[in-house]
Amino acid sequence: MAKDYYQTLGVSRDVDQAALKKAYRKLAQTYHPDRNPGDKKAEDRFKEITEAYAVLSDKEKRQQYDRFGESGFHQRYSQEDIFRNADLGDLFGNLGAGGEDLFSQLFGGGRQRGRGQRQPVKGQDFSMEISIPLRLAVEGGERHVEYRNEGQIEQIKVRIPTGIEEGAKLRVSGKGGPAPAGGRNGDLFLQIRIETDAVFKREENNLLVEILLPYSQLCLGTSAEIPTLQGDKRIKVPAGVQPGAKIRLRGFGVPASAGRPAGDLYAIINVEVPTQLDDRQRELLQELAKANL
After folding, report:
1. pLDDT of residue 113
2. Same structural domain for residues 133 and 211?
3. Can you tell me the distance from the alpha carbon of 178 to that of 181, in angstroms, rounded to the nearest whole number?
4. Which structural domain range is residue 236 located in?
5. 288 three-class SS
6. Residue 132 in contact with residue 194, Cβ under 8 Å?
7. Which residue ranges of the chain lie beneath pLDDT 50?
């Protein structure tokens, strides 16, 4: 299937529903199987545009597609999920098979396989929460997950996509409950919880890290090493910087993924106040106090 649903339908990413419907109707009339009997290329094209419209015409699915991109979206939605509640019956005009029959013929997604023959029932879906470190959520990778299925403990390896966010759901196909009468197994849905990190804080696609510096260095300016995902990096701290100021490192935040650019890293500058002073330090601070510093 197509990699970019907007491109498939020939529309911009800010297309409204009326223009989206018009674009799909025009393409559907061109590639509809009843107008192209025996043409496999036309049938494949019709499948692509129908899948694209089923996603983009649904507000929630479109938001998920825009947020996570093609790869991330298909980890969350199966083919069955994509066409669930899709209403295409009024779009085909007089072109023969309507939405329900067409789904059954082309996608296997109708309610019945044939006259009087019910489609096998899918197994039960399971859901559970998993906690992952912030760095794994940001950079992506793999995680082993244990869950209980039919009284047995199963362990699976799950791919965590780069930049996954708190509360996102991952779908692991076929790892739910078994299906009766020859249907396919249910799916396992994993809701992501991200653990607090000792160094980084995340805000959307950006990372924040706090840097504590002595008051004198904030006044005079200095350089400082800050942690990044790629290792420590030295930055210049200008003279007179105020506590709470942010120094931006472009591209050092959440890595680029699913068509999104890399985020940035912000070093938040704060003053380090000593809890103990030796005699010399106390003397110097008293001099500064006399000078209103």
Report:
1. 44
2. no
3. 10
4. 201-290
5. helix
6. yes
7. 1-2, 94, 96-100, 109-116
19 and 50: one domain?
yes
Which secondary structure element, helix H or strand E, spans residue 289, and what is its range?
A: helix 279-290
DSSP states of 64-115? HHHHHHHHHHHHH--HHHHHTT---GGGSTTSSS-HHHHIIIIIS-SSEEET
The strand pairing partners of 157, in sequence order, are 144
Summarize pLDDT for 12-21 with one digit per residue, the tens.
999 999 999 9
Q: With a threshold of 0.90, does the pTM exceed it?
A: no
What amino acid occupies position 60?
A: E
Give Cα separations from 16 to 6, 7, 22, 46, 47 (angstroms).
12, 15, 10, 21, 22
CATH code at position 34? 1.10.287.110
> How many structural domains is the chain composed of?
3
Q: What is the pLDDT of residue 102?
A: 54
Q: For the beta carbon of residue 103, count every other beta carbon within 10 angstroms.
A: 19
